[in-house]
Design a protein that fits this description.
single chain, 416 residues, alpha/beta, Carbamate kinase, VC0802-like, 8-stranded mixed sheet, 6-stranded antiparallel sheet, 25% strand, binds aspartic acid, binds magnesium ion
Length: 416
């Protein structure tokens, strides 16, 4: 017998029929003798619908009230799932985030979980009940309802699993695992049986949208084995088979790694770059350029500064595409004159393509193979950044798919 947390996404909870299927699947696990906590998302489309209503009322709604509104989607889900379980003879009880409570900070619409009380939940589990807890929401010190940011139910699930010291957190979703790259771009993309937590962190931050990145951070910090698997399979499929399906996010030391140098190719079209030309090469320049951008809450990603010629240098950085105009203005208005830079230019039609793999630590030549492959396709590299387990390049957006396909092939990812 083990304590296991199941998380079901919006698609899995998308209709009463699907909720009944979730209930049958959960009951199967409970019948096998496990203690089960379920963390569902709102029914698909519901959070968007609610936020849309807010927009109809106000262009700039109060974040506290937005959380009050958006959190209701998950409350509907937990109640319906509890009823569905009861209807097939299971004892079940649902709780909202503030009933547990799941304590968060007060950063409305993007709160962070601080602690989770396990007393009530443990008691219910020991009494044989399935416990269902809302994803996405919590409560702050002052009793205000908070939410964890879009896709936050993943984080709720992993955090609940960590707090309860669960054996595993199963994230049921509409894809059957984590792939070597997006199968819509490369049809030969392969599902990974395991991926290390560090690789998953890179993939999530580089544009693979399977899990909310914070949930991966939680999994890493608490060493919570987390599995991504399909909720679209037959709910009555054999449990042993289901328990081994999907992709397990694991910890390098305790997993038998698949024998590959590169694990996956990630890409993001959500990129824009800004270059400041002719800035004086002296202390404090990077801070003067990036300080105001950071103060405006823009997340700067890649940064490159050239060697100076005649005491002047160029400075280039990337930002999320949605923050491009704002960042360009900031740099153009304030910083340019303060720094005496000659020109600010930008491009919001760029994308970032990355190869990721812990195998990079022990293999040389990955970068040169990546650059050779791109050069053979005639793709110009605009910027490069690396970490211990990834190499990212920035390129003209129109080459994204070509680059991903060529790299997937060059690193033999289709063969496993
Ligand atoms: N319902 C929330 C959203 O749509 C949270 C989640 O589904 O993870 O973002
Ligand atoms: Mg999601």
């Amino acid at each position: 017998m083990a304590l296991i947390v199941h998380k079901y996404g919006g698609t899995s909870m998308g209709s009463t029929e699907r909720i009944k299927n979730v209930a049958r699947r959960v009951a199967k696990w409970h019948d096998a003798g496990h203690q089960i906590v379920v963390v569902p998302s709102a029914m698909s489309g519901e959070t968007n619908r609610l936020l849309g209503l807010a927009k109809e009322i106000s262009t700039d709604p109060d974040p506290r009230e937005l959380d009050m509104l958006a959190s209701t989607g998950e409350q509907v889900s937990v109640a319906l799932l509890a009823m569905a379980l009861q209807a097939i003879g299971k004892q079940a009880v649902s709780y909202t985030g503030w009933q547990v409570p799941i304590l968060t900070d007060s950063a409305h619409t993007k709160s962070r979980i601080q602690s989770i009380d396990d007393v009530k939940v443990k008691k219910d589990l020991d009494a044989g009940k399935v416990v269902i807890i809302t994803g996405f929401q919590g409560v702050d010190d002052n009793g205000n309802i908070t939410t964890l940011g879009r896709g936050g139910s993943d984080t709720s699930a992993v955090a609940v699993a960590a707090a309860l010291k669960a054996a595993e957190c199963l994230i049921y979703t509409d894809v059957d695992g984590v792939y070597t790259t997006d199968p819509r771009v490369v049809s030969e993309a392969r599902r990974l049986k395991t991926v290390t937590f560090e690789e998953m962190l890179e993939m999530a931050s580089l544009g693979s949208k399977v899990l909310q990145i914070r949930s991966v951070e939680f999994a890493g910090n608490y060493r919570m084995p987390t599995r991504v698997l399909s909720s679209l399979t037959d709910p009555m499929m054999p449990l042993e088979e289901e328990a081994q399906s999907g992709t397990l996010i694991s910890f390098e030391e305790d997993t038998h790694m698949e024998q590959a140098t590169i694990t996956g190719i990630a890409f993001s079209r959500d990129e824009a770059k800004i270059t400041v030309r002719g800035v004086p090469d002296k202390p404090g320049i990077a801070y003067q350029i990036l300080g105001p951008v950071a103060d405006a809450n823009v997340e700067v990603d890649m940064i490159v500064q050239n060697i100076s010629v005649d005491g002047k240098t160029d400075f280039t950085f990337t930002v999320p595409r949605a923050d491009y105009e704002k960042s360009l203005k900031l740099v153009d208005n304030g910083i340019k004159s303060a720094l005496g830079a000659t020109l600010v230019v930008g491009d919001n039609k760029v994308s970032k393509v990355s190869v990721v793999g812990v195998g990079m630590r022990s293999h040389v030549g990955i970068a040169s193979q990546m650059f050779r492959t791109l050069s053979e396709e005639g793709i110009n590299i605009q910027m490069i950044s690396t970490s211990e387990i990834k190499i990212s390049v920035l390129m003209d957006e129109k080459y994204t798919e070509l680059a991903v396909r060529a790299l997937h092939k060059a690193f033999g990812l289709e063969n496993g």
